[in-house]
Give the backbone structure.
Amino acid sequence: MSLTHCPRNRGKPKVKGIFISNTELDKNGRDYLRTHGGIRFIGKQELADTFISAERVTRVAKPMVFDISGHEASTYVVDKTQKAVIAPLKASELIRMDGISNQALFAFNVRGPLGKTQVNRDIAESVRDKSRHKLFPLFHNGITVIAEKVDATEDEITVKNYYVVNGCQSLSELYNNGSHITDNLRVLVKLIEIETSSGLSEIVTTFSNNQNGVKARDFKSNNRIQIRLQNEVEQKYGSEFHFEIKRGEDNKGRKTLTNELAGLYLLAFDLKRPWDTHRKYQIFEDEHAAVFGRPVVTADRVILCELLAGRVQSAIGKLNNTLFAKYALSRFLVLYILRLILEADALGKKVIAAPEAYIAGLKQRTALAKAVDKVLQDIVIDLNAELAQVAEDFDYRGRLRDEDWVKTLSHRIVADHAKLVSRGRIGSFEHDFEEARKSTRAVGMVRKKKRH
């Protein structure tokens, strides 16, 4: 059941039943619903059309055979379904594994290729220096592979349904420098056989990546919430945005919005805690569920926050105090003030509650941006007035992390804005949005006439 508000009796809840089924209605069911407006039916087709997957393809199905003749492999047996085989495998064979070029092989690795880092440059240098090839296993940490099946004989190892959980950087560099590889270059590889349904694979992935240089964010790259959100952004806004949940992902030329930045926006705008945004690591630790796990956190909401934050970034460049303007937490303060003003406005409440209606279409999004810019102009004027009164040794870094100071300043600016709106000195957000929408519509009509 869902609770809605009856337009005639504002504030009084109206109960509406929602019947969900994995089949479609027959004629009797459709006739019944026509006479009972208090029930909404959701059938198989609507469920399929609106479903957002929280899964990704993780395994490479094509078997791979490695030649280990002349070398020993070590096998550690846990039980009849779990074992590990460690062997020095030819780099020339490793780079022939499916899924390297399109990164499918590393779907469960906590990071994608990170480009020309110092570590990756060192690996590439070692690959190009053929005198080091036999020495490679002595100074390289190795690669970890999880597979559904690992079969080892004296001369070869066969793996089926596999993926790499540690060693993305190394394997990518080997692949990129394949022309320099000789048969002397071998890599120590741990091949772990685990049942597909086993939860142990997640533990192996986490612990094998528990090393310096791996961030809390990296360990959430395979989280179902993050995968679902990435899939939804791809489905609805994929022509414009790439929602990055794993460092090193290919954005295919689109604008990248990282889940780290999206989390900070949600913390400041949705949870209204801009003073906590300096502790960004918490977004992927204790605060992950609070920030990302709420039902309202959809692709529409993160793109709304991205749009608003972009307008904020442009606006704070007009602050007179340049040090304050350039400090990272300042934009989250302004985003928070913007939230307080929007939620006090009739239309602003609708934008917060149902962002898809205002950002999915270009005309609506353009009108929204113009209306937000007007609000931000007023916020900047008030902030300039407030900052003009502070002493030269004003500790803006400390103040922006001070909840009491941020709340006091923000509510003072919001109260002044509400006062100016009520006196007709400035337009409300709703008024500015309607004016912007009319302007956008008029420009569209002029362009249409010119084309004809």
Notes: The first strand starts at residue 2 and ends at 5. The two ends are 51 Å apart (CA to CA).
